[in-house]
Design brief:
By secondary structure, the chain is mainly alpha-helical. It has a single domain, classed as Tetracycline Repressor, domain 2, CATH 1.10.357.40. It has 8 helices and 5 strands, in the order E-E-E-H-H-H-H-H-E-H-E-H-H. Helix 4 crosses helix 5 and helix 4 crosses helix 7. The longest helix is centred in the C-terminal third of the chain and has 20 residues. The mean pLDDT is 93.
């Protein structure tokens, strides 16, 4: 298998890679229903707009509400911070849920692709549509997978060399 394509949160094994996957995420001292909620909560300029976005009854509607904001309701630095925010949200999600982390790590080195069906700029930025797009979400998941592997390797203590006394005693 060269790549794993995911999109629907209710998809089999890899649906958990979707930001719409229903699993709480603690982020910035708040618990959000999903990674999408945590990500989009940072987009609004005003607290009342943030509250409105987060009041949407489903993660898909949270995304739709946030994507439909007028420019004056969006933080002025959103285009500069959104990718770092997504990385932080993904780190929180996969660090807080061991089962999700295991699924991510189980993918080995295969390419992860958010594979959308509706062709629009948002889907082509975060994923691919018919093989075209930047696949930023997939890239970030692969980066996180590598980071989690490095962190796991760093916590494994290498077997040290024994002293001559220890070797004789053995």
């Amino acid at each position: 298998m060269d790549e794993i394509r995911f999109y629907r949160a209710n998809g089999e094994t890899y649906g958990c890679f979707s930001n719409l996957y229903r699993r709480p995420v603690e982020f910035e001292d708040e618990v959000f229903d999903t990674a999408e909620h945590a990500y989009q909560a940072g987009k609004a300029r005003k607290p009342e707009v943030r509250k409105w976005i987060l009041s949407a009854p489903s993660p898909a509607l949270v995304a739709m509400a946030a994507h439909g904001l007028y420019w004056w309701d969006i933080r002025s630095d959103w285009s500069k911070i959104k990718f770092d925010r997504m990385r932080q949200v993904l780190k929180a999600k996969f660090s807080q849920h061991e089962d999700l982390q295991e699924i991510l790590l189980s993918t080995g080195d295969v390419r992860l692709v958010e594979s959308a069906t509706v062709d629009n700029p948002v889907n082509r930025l975060w994923g691919e549509v018919k093989g075209h797009g930047k696949n930023r979400l997939g890239q970030m998941l692969m980066e996180l997978r590598a980071q989690l592997r490095l962190e796991a390797a760093a916590t494994v203590k290498p077997r040290g060399r024994r002293s001559s006394k220890e070797r004789l005693a053995a």
